[in-house]
Amino acid sequence: MSLPLVILDRDGVINEDSPDYIKSLEEWIPLAGSLDAIARLKHAGYPVAVATNQSGLARGLFDQAALDAMHGRLQGLLAERHCRLDMIAFCPHGPDDGCDCRKPRPGLYRRISETLGLPLSDAVVIGDSGRDLEAAVAVGARPVLVLTGKGAATRNRGGLPEGTLVCRDLTAAVDQLLAEVPQAPASRDSD
To answer: How far apart are CA 99 and CA 22, in angstroms?
Structure first.
């Protein structure tokens, strides 16, 4: 049985978010339990990728080296947990650039799918904003809203896509996903 691709938003899901953008390694602070939750998914066999809008690049708030340092830290902290993300995809464009990769457009999800050779039809997208969920629905993926970051405000605005699972945080979302996986029967030694 192959497990579905899990696509995570970054800011507000994995690490703290800020209305002023996460611009440096010092500002990139993991949310409590998020890295362990990713490790649990990876150790259970799930392919896990990150899809993140990073318009701070287009706005000149930080450069590619700063973004690479943040993603390097993320992968390094996961390596300490004996795993790594399968892919990190980001949109470097501003909101008026007209690209296909800025969520709620589904270009980042499609890039991940094509690069990893995994379908989006059974994928799970975990995010904290309406744009994450809209992009999930656009590719037929299952939307999951976490209440960290912008998640509580997103839920309170209403209008969530039908079937959206709402979870306290990434840990609770991972608990739910792992609980849905049928467990293989325990093997018995024959005499």
So the answer is: 22
Query: Among the options 9, 17, 128, 132, which is catalytic?
Result: 9
> Which one has a higher pLDDT value, 183 or 103?
103
Q: Can you tell me the distance from the alpha carbon of 54 to that of 59, in angstroms, rounded to the nearest whole number?
A: 9
Q: Which residues of 88-126 are buried (b: 16+ CB within 10 A; e: fewer)?
A: bbbbbbbeeeeeebbbebbbbbbbbbeeeebebeebbbb
- Measure Cα distances from 68 to 25, 27, 62, 108, 110 in Å: 9, 14, 11, 17, 22
- pTM comes to 0.94
Distance CA 152, CA 140 (A): 24
Query: Among this protein's residues, is 175 annotated catalytic?
Result: no
Q: Is 11 a catalytic residue?
A: yes
Q: Compute the mean pLDDT over every residue in the chain, rounded to the nearest whole number.
A: 94
Q: Which residue in this structure is represented by tokens 């030694």?
A: 189
The catalytic residue among 11, 128, 132, 169 is: 11
Instruction: Please give the Cα distance from 177 to 111 (Å, whole number).
Output: 23
**pLDDT for position 39:** 98
In this structure, what are the phi and psi dihedrals at residue 10, rounded to the nearest 5 degrees? Answer: -100, -75
